[in-house]
Amino acid sequence: MKTLVICSGGLDSVSLAHIIAAQGELSRLVSFDYDQRHKKEVEFAAAAARRLHVPHHIVDIRSIGASLTGSALTDDIDVPDGHYAEDTMKVTVVPNRNAIMLSIAYGIAAAKGDTGVATAVHGGDHFIYPDCRPAFTEAFDTMQCAALDGYADVSLVTPFVHKTKADIVTEGVAANTPFADTWSCYKGGTHHCGRCGTCVERREAFHLAGITDPTQYEDPDFWRAATGTATGTDSHQETA
């Protein structure tokens, strides 16, 4: 297979890129600029492409993103603090984001002769993001097979769709993913804030996986209160 990876620059997608590269199947990385407040993530995707020696396509969909209003990721709305399992996090939904990105990625894959489009959606996304759930990914793959019927044979690759973020950390370590060179925080500051849903989920995943987190957080301890994790339960040393 020749597999295109949709890569935001976050822990999940960069890990996926390294895993597929280790399998000898990575063809290219595709990232999207939809005028997200944390667009610095694209810089980390670009670094991953250079590290893995594959082309990096940055697709400018800012005009589309401007129409996808109502999200804290694209509008002047505060990104909430807390865990993804809280209803307040629904304000981070960008309507139909994955469907739009996947459609473009399938077109690129068909044009370039790739046979797979890989996305790092995972089980932890299911609660809040409908376009990360198995029902969506399975239906989308079926739709795209019909859309490209007779022109290209491209399949959707979702190895994490039934896995946890901790599972991704474990598999990412095995593929030598440099976690310090990934960006998750939705607030897009100088360092990870440590308080938004992606930061809390990221920090908790390292804890559950029993792997040292190299990330520098502005608030390194907030995740404990957000997840109900007691102080002193780490199996490894906290890093600043």
Automatic annotation (TrEMBL):
Membrane-crossing segments per the record: none
Keywords annotated in UniProt: ATP-binding, Ligase, Metal-binding, Nucleotide-binding, Queuosine biosynthesis, Zinc
EC number(s) reported in the record: 6.3.4.20
Gene Ontology biological process terms in this record: tRNA queuosine(34) biosynthetic process
Top-rank taxon, per record: Bacteria
Lineage, uppermost ranks: Bacteria, Pseudomonadati, Pseudomonadota, Alphaproteobacteria, Rhodobacterales
Pfam families the record matches: QueC
InterPro entries: QueC, Rossmann-like_a/b/a_fold
Biological pathway: Purine metabolism; 7-cyano-7-deazaguanine biosynthesis
Co-factor binding comment: Binds 1 zinc ion per subunit.
Protein name in UniProt: 7-cyano-7-deazaguanine synthase
The protein's role, per its UniProt record: Catalyzes the ATP-dependent conversion of 7-carboxy-7-deazaguanine (CDG) to 7-cyano-7-deazaguanine (preQ(0)).
One Gene Ontology term of the molecular function aspect: zinc ion binding
Catalytic activity entry: 7-carboxy-7-carbaguanine + NH4(+) + 2 ATP = 7-cyano-7-carbaguanine + 2 AMP + 2 diphosphate + 2 H(+)
Record flagged with keyword Zinc: yes
Family, similarity comment: Belongs to the QueC family.
Binding site for Zn(2+): 185, 193, 196, 199
Record-listed ATP binding positions: 7-17
Cofactor(s) this protein requires: Zn(2+)
SUPFAM superfamilies hit by this protein: Adenine nucleotide alpha hydrolases-like (SSF52402)
Keyword Zinc: yes
